[in-house]
Recover the amino acids of this structure.
């Protein structure tokens, strides 16, 4: 059986580890960054969520902290870098799908290790990280050290989030070795397989090969309008998405990952948590911005 954590009384302690930035659209700037989005969605779903990252001592940095607090995400370990700007990314939307252009050498590229993070890591139930924040040696080292400081039963969720050229074979391989849950998209799957030098004849075979090669408990594959797959305990569960009119897919994958993580920690049946995650991601696609307020009906269903 799948070994997961069940916490009955205490809130689940969940960490988003990596980049905090602003998505700059042609008409506005919106708060984002995959680990931050993940933490915001986890908090909305009832977690004691925190972000470990860095922002600049600028207006965008102050606004980022204010938004995280507003969304009930702890910023106790959000570092403030007086020498570098808060991260930003230019976002262009075409047919409902985003493309990204990232600013270089920003605050989240310099997340330093602090001894207080040892206690945070040792007490968290789940931590989510990706590849983008690992483009810098400093933040990559902090991410790896944090993951190595967690307890064996902590969910280490690797949401690969491939962006431009900010990934390579060592980063993906080392991240998978540190993870026990892997989330990726159908567009990312062939890139990951090729980067790792792996080959399989089908999507299912690819997922099984990755699970076996890296001893992963769960793999979640999002497929946009074609739904999603979750491989857990050797069993594959497939969900079709609700019929929606998508206007902005930014943040949908992060909400999907957060909902899956919460369901795993609560030891829910895979089909149940998968259906909820699919519904939440679909709702986010119908809203502007990465972290819209979730309907009360979704929260009440937990």
């Amino acid at each position: 059986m799948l070994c997961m954590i069940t916490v009955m009384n205490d809130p689940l302690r969940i960490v988003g580890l990596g980049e905090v930035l602003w998505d700059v659209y042609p008409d506005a700037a919106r708060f984002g960054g995959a680990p931050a989005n993940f933490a915001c969605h986890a908090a909305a779903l009832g977690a004691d969520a925190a972000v470990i990252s860095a922002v600049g001592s600028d207006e965008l940095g102050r606004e980022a902290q204010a938004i995280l607090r507003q969304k009930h995400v702890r910023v106790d370990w959000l570092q403030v870098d007086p020498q570098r700007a808060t991260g930003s990314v230019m976002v262009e939307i075409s047919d409902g799908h985003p493309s990204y252009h990232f600013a270089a050498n920003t605050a989240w590229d310099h997340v330093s290790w602090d001894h207080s993070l040892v206690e945070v890591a040792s007490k968290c139930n789940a931590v989510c990280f990706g590849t983008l924040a690992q483009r810098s040696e400093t933040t990559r080292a902090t991410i790896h050290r944090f993951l190595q400081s967690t307890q064996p039963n902590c969910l280490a969720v690797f949401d690969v989030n491939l962006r431009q050229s900010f990934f390579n074979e060592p980063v993906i391989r080392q991240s998978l070795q540190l993870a026990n849950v892997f989330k990726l998209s159908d567009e990312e799957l062939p890139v990951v397989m090729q980067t790792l030098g792996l080959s399989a004849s089908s999507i299912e075979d690819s997922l099984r090969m990755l699970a076996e090669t890296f001893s992963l408990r769960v793999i979640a594959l999002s497929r946009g309008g074609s739904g999603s797959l979750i491989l857990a305990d050797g069993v594959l569960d497939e969900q079709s998405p609700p019929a929606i009119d998508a206007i902005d897919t930014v943040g949908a994958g992060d909400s999907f990952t957060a909902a899956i993580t919460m369901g795993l920690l609560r030891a829910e049946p895979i089909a149940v948590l998968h259906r909820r995650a699919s519904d939440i991601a679909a709702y986010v696609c119908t809203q502007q911005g990465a972290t819209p307020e979730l309907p009360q009906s979704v929260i009440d269903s937990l």
User: Anything to note?
Assistant: The mean pLDDT is 91. The CA atoms of residues 59 and 78 lie 15 Å apart. The two ends are 22 Å apart (CA to CA).
